[in-house]
């Protein structure tokens, strides 16, 4: 099967596989050069080492181009994501909490790893008086950015609204240490 683009190819390759291949080529080349140096192979050891270095260079160059192409292909997706996030901010500033929340959920996707979308999503839940969801989003945010005093204070407020006073106190202590 031939990959359709560099992104497909980079999914099949990874840095560990390329590193392993390079290591095998180097060890094989040095081993062959050693055998040639001791007369077991009728070849000049310098030619074997030279060929090994050229082969390693080609493998590293080609894999680097593939990985770079893969990352470059994701840049337009990132820009679209940021544009969508900005749309959510406009809705947030217009106090359209439900619509803004939907945009922020869309931006963070299934992995929920977009920090700013988590933060603003939590603020939307705060405005909608959904403290349990606010707490959940803030916890996800703090997994990504644990040294954010403001968010620890927001988490304490969410815990208090949910009558989780021990957790609220713990969040306040964490905030005071920052």
Brief characterization of the structure:
By secondary structure, this protein is mainly alpha-helical. The chain has nine helices and no strands.
Q: Provide the β-strand percentage band.
A: under 5%
Please, what is the CATH homologous superfamily of the largest domain?
A: Tetratricopeptide repeat domain
What is the count of structural domains? Answer: 2
**Would you list the SSEs in sequence order as H and E?**
HHHHHHHHH
- Main beta sheet: none
Radius of gyration: 27 Å
Model description:
This protein is an all-alpha fold and 178 residues long. It folds into two domains: 6-73; 76-176, Tetratricopeptide repeat domain (Serine Threonine Protein Phosphatase 5, Tetratricopeptide repeat), CATH 1.25.40.10. 80% of the residues lie in helices and 0% in strands. The chain is built from nine helices and no strands. α1 (6-12) crosses α3 (45-73), α2 (15-37) packs antiparallel against α3 and α6 packs antiparallel against α7 (131-144). The longest helix has 29 residues, at 45-73. The model is unreliable at 1-10 (pLDDT under 50).
